[in-house]
Amino acid sequence: MKISTIAVHGGLTDTSHYAAAFPVYLTSTFIQKGPTEFREYGYSRTANPTRSDVEKHAADIEGAKHGIATATGMAAVSLVFETLNAGDRVLISNNVYGGTWLYATELFKKRGVEFTVVDDFNTYDFETAPADVKLVYIETPSNPLLEVTDIAHVAKAAKARNWLLAVDNTFLTGVNQRPLDLGADVVIYSATKYYGGHSDLLAGLVVLNDDKLYEKLKLYSKALGGVLDPFDCFLLERGIKTLPLRLARHEENTHAIARYLSAHPGVEAVFYPGLESDPGYAVNRRQSKGAGGVLSFRFNEEAYDLEKFVKALKLFQFAVSLGSVESLISIPATMTHESYAPELQKKLGITPNLIRVAVGIEDIEDLIADFEQAFAAAKR
Questions:
Q1: Is 285 part of the annotated catalytic residue set?
Q2: Does domain 243-378 have CATH number 3.90.1150.10?
Q3: pLDDT of 17-53, one tens digit each?
Q4: Where in the sequence is N6-(pyridoxal phosphate)lysine found (predicted)?
């Protein structure tokens, strides 16, 4: 089946009453047959039918065997990091989500885990990697500079050294990019974003094929308790059904806005792998079906006032997050990536005038008109 059909018809079938929408099982516990006869479900922290439905649906979207739904995107990241033991090392992209960076800088050390920051995995010499590496962690496109990593290239190097490769695929989803098909071992999502799509839930997903790794992660999920509750599973399931449709509109709008911003005097640079001029364009085109609905740009503060620009916007709401139907705008240096030290922000190019735009599904003429009036209000 094609992806739009899977989005509508994936997941489990309700065989109790054959409801078209899978039921919400708002129960903490399930009645068992007897002391030696147990049913499929016992306690909702371990498993819940509504969660099983959305987990299978997420795996179906990815063409994968297994899915695990977690309470937040960071719970999904944390679950994968639980595979590490004291003495292990992680190779991690220098340009990752701020919450992931916070975990690495604050929690790895107390767990006896080390990490090495890699500036560019596409040119990294894996022969020089430390001997204690166990996991490679990448985002592509990255947050917030939309840098693209060649997944197959990294996967080949990781597999040759028996390392796990985890890919945060939040920006593109399984609709546009399938890291497992390119050699990754596990894929991570903040399902709060495109999978949910409506700014009304927090959720995470972990998707994989390896049976042994899945059983290990399921056990860790049970022990840690960071599972997705049944009602949010229902909301996430509903979001998945329209994911391909929404994502197509997100991307259509983002391409148009990227072209508009690239030609505007109020913009110094645009970061979006959907533009042919972008350094990541060729690799992203080779490994993905699209470039997603997020871009960043560097604001020209000499000619325009940044604060006036932000405050003048009417449709682009000033808030963190992305992937929802409404358009959002944020400043990574002080919002999503505030956990990065100032010197690291400067090194990476996360400057105070860098603006990240999560483009929604509104009419593109209205979105561009909103930018136009905000630039006009901010002109010095």
A1: no
A2: yes
A3: 999 999 999 999 999 999 998 999 999 999 999 999 9
A4: 193
